[in-house]
Amino acid sequence: MGRVRAARASAVTLAIVPAVEATCDDALDFLSGGGAMGACVRAHDWAATSLGSPERWPQPLRQAVRSLFAALQPAALAWGTEPLHLCNDAFARLLAVDGRADLIGASSREKWPLLHDPALGPRLAAVRQDGQPTVVEDHLSCVARNGRVEEAYVSCRLEPVADGAGGVGGVLLVLTETTDRVLSARRTEVLRALAAEAARVRSVEDAHARSMAELARHPADVPFALLYAPDAAGGEAHLVGAAGLAAGGPASPERVALTLTAPAPGWPIAAALARDETLTVDDVATRFGALPGGDWPFAPRVALAIPLAPPGCERPEAVLVVGVSARRALDPGYRSFLELVAGQVAAAIAAGRAYEERRRRADAAAAAGKRARARQRARARAMEARFAGVLEERTRMAREIHDTLLQGVTGIALQLRATLPHVRRSPEGAAEVLERMMALAEATSRDARRAVWDLRGPVAGEGGLPRALLDMARRAAGGAGPAVESAVQGTPRALPRLVHDAIYHVAQEAVANAVRHAAARRIELRLRYARGAVHLTVADDGQGFEFDAGFRSYAGHWGLIGMRERADRIGATLTVASARGEGTTIALRVPCAGRRVASEPGDALSRRGG
Prior knowledge:
- By secondary structure, the protein is α+β, with helices and mostly antiparallel strands.
- It has helices spanning 35-43, 59-70, 89-94, 121-130, 179-198, 204-216, 269-275, 284-288, 332-425, 427-456, 464-477, 497-516, 558-569; strands at residues 3-6, 75-79, 84-87, 134-145, 148-162, 168-177, 225-230, 236-243, 255-257, 279-281, 303-308, 318-323, 483-489, 493-494, 522-530, 533-540, 573-578, 584-591, 595-596, 606-609.
- It is built from 13 helices and 20 strands.
């Protein structure tokens, strides 16, 4: 129970000196003084003991008694092989045996339990045997004081006293109480450990668990602890942590009603929260019976209910119930320590809440960053799509110019060159050639106007996409082109510009292919607004073609490839159905949502060109 170390010989305060035979003429001045215990020594019948009358005591014993009475520190003397014990007033006060005359000259374990202690008794025997002084540090000794048996700690210096015959006649014990130092160090370690756990918490629940687990490791100072936190409604407090007591027992209910209307037989949780002050429960045994005593086999009689108000909180958020050790009085130092324990638990809760808040802010910042990066990627994709669209339009217009304007102009130039000889030989034949040239020039002019209009692109103005598609279909059909039927179903709504332009250009390409390459007589163009999607269908009765569903082989079919790329760019689905001699149907489904916009009267618009 204590630390034992050998003392150096120079530390011996009572030297071993030869015994001098006392005579009846010697004065008994060595027995003078000594206060109450000195009076007990003088009144004791020593003649009836193995020591005999004090007049015949050896000189070393006399000197030891004189030093014993003069000592300011608690001291006791054990003399003889069956040691008889004496002590001074300071020793009696330390062990709360003031004025106990029955202790003087006694040797029994019942009268002197400290000297028969399993840790201290063998050290006394060793000093008597080898004559070497020893120090036992921070020895635990249970002392009856303050109306209870308390734990106390003493450091003992054991010094041999010569018997005058070359041996050791007894042992002088000089005590220094170290209870305050031991308790202070122990309690400081509790607070340090709680602070270390508070630095590791990651949530309020983690703070509850870590704090209670740490308190469970220190039952000497905290026999049991319960942590209650009120629910959001404030009607009940829930047990969120326990140490030294199993949750759900009579003294540790899972829920406690927060009512002040009548005193409850349990813990005063509601009162502690309402008053925001520490409450003392001094009838623990009456309320709950015998509760665990921690390191001691004695049930605590007192407990504290301490409200916890973490830093930054105006009102307490929890109540810590802590048991008071049955071996310590609830003095100001003990109370202050338990309130510091509660403060550390409150700090852990605050740390857990702060960590949660930091994590929420970090998660929010990460989510905001993720959204910002997604917007950046979306803008980049939109910009890429726009540039790709511009490049595609340039490529398409290059094909248009090559296939129409350049071929028309080239044809006119060739026919002019071929006409020159006819003008000289046969004016009539030249007129026929000029008629064909005029028709070719007019067709080339129409193609040029269409190409210029296509370069201008659709305008999402009044009427929106439906009007743009109807105008495009009317221009594509021209005066002598195929019959074009167009219809709009559902309520038109505004679409993103990228989606608007993609639908328009797919329809434009499909109609242009039907007019220029399929020799179609009839074209149907339908636009349908459905819930969450827009459907475009362009069908013709032209000559059709062999269809590759995988879009893998389209030599010369650049228009279809362009339509597929536009559909992919806006996440749409493009379906092509065609066979030779059976016409072609192109369907585009665009999943999207938009705002409803004003449309022309009626849910369906129809135009027919031809």
